[in-house]
Design a protein that fits this description.
Helix content: 25-40%
CATH topology of the largest domain: Nucleotidyltransferase, domain 5
Largest sheet: 5 strands, mixed
Low-confidence stretches: none
CATH class of the largest domain: Alpha Beta
Number of helices: 6
Order of helices and strands: EEEHEHEHEEEHEEHH
Distance between the termini: 49 Å
Oligomer: single chain
Shape: globular
Number of strands: 10
Strand content: 25-35%
CATH superfamily of the largest domain: ATPase, nucleotide binding domain
Structural class: alpha/beta
Length: 208
C-alpha cells in the first residue's frame, strides 16, 4: 500500500509518500505567505522524484485542522480534488493528533497551536495517545490549570507563547502518523470538511 500524507494547517508544508512501512519521500518546509502557490508544485515534485503517477497512490491522509484557516483549506482542496477525480480513498486526522503521535516520549503529550488573544488549540493525550482532554479551543490559562494535576508532561508546538519556554518543537514522524491512521475509516471527498474548533473571525463578529 502506498499513502500520501498532507498537512498544510500551519505555515509549513508537511507531506510525504509512505510505502510498505518506508518513507519514500518527504517535505518539511516553511512557506508562510507563499504556501498556496508552493504546496501543489512541491507535492508534484515528490511524485516526479520517485517516478510515480497520481494513480499510484492507494490512500490519502490529510490534516483538516485545527490551525491556519487559509492553510487548512489549501491542503483540503488539494486532497479532495485529488481523491474525487481519481477515486482514491481519503481520510482525515487532526493536526493535534499528528503532533502527539510524533512524540517519542512516554509521558503525557500536550500539543499546542497558538490561536491568539490568549487562546490555544490543544488536547491532552496519555502515553498511549488516548485523549484525556479532547481537541479544543480554550484559554491558555485554562490549559495551564488543567496541567497542574499532571506530574510529567511535554508541551509540543512550533509556536511561541508568552512566559512558556519548556516547549518541544514539533517535527512530524510521517511513518508513525501513517501507521497509526492508515486504517481509519474513509470518507466521501465531498464530505471532507475543515475542523477549525472555533468560529472564523467573520462568524464571531456576526454572533457579537
Amino acid at each position: 500500500m502506498r499513502y500520501l500524507y498532507i498537512d498544510t494547517s500551519s505555515s509549513f508544508l508537511y507531506t510525504a509518500i509512505v510505502e510498505d512501512n518506508k518513507v519514500l519521500s518527504e517535505i518539511r518546509e516553511e512557506f508562510e505567505q507563499s504556501l498556496s502557490k508552493m504546496a501543489l508544485p512541491r507535492i508534484v515534485s515528490m511524485f516526479e522524484k520517485n517516478k510515480l503517477k497520481p494513480v499510484d497512490i492507494d490512500k490519502i491522509i490529510v490534516v483538516n485542522g485545527p490551525g491556519s484557516f487559509t492553510g487548512i483549506r489549501i491542503g483540503l482542496t488539494i486532497a479532495k480534488v485529488y481523491a474525487w477525480s481519481l477515486d482514491i480513498p481519503i481520510t482525515t486526522i487532526l493536526s493535534l493528533e499528528a503532533m502527539a503521535i510524533s512524540s517519542s516520549t512516554e509521558i503525557i503529550h500536550v500539543p499546542m497551536i497558538n490561536a491568539r488573544r490568549g487562546y490555544v488549540f490543544t488536547a491532552i493525550y496519555d502515553s498511549s495517545y488516548n485523549a484525556i482532554l479532547k481537541p479544543c479551543h480554550i484559554p491558555l490559562v485554562e490549559l495551564q490549570k488543567k496541567l497542574e494535576s499532571f506530574k510529567d508532561y511535554e508541551l509540543i508546538s512550533n509556536d511561541e507563547f508568552e512566559d512558556i519556554n519548556n516547549i518541544n518543537l514539533y517535527s512530524p514522524d510521517f511513518l508513525k502518523i501513517v501507521n497509526k491512521f492508515k486504517d481509519k475509516k474513509e470518507k466521501n471527498p465531498h464530505l471532507v470538511n475543515p475542523e477549525y474548533l472555533k468560529l472564523t473571525e467573520a462568524e464571531e463578529k456576526k454572533h457579537d
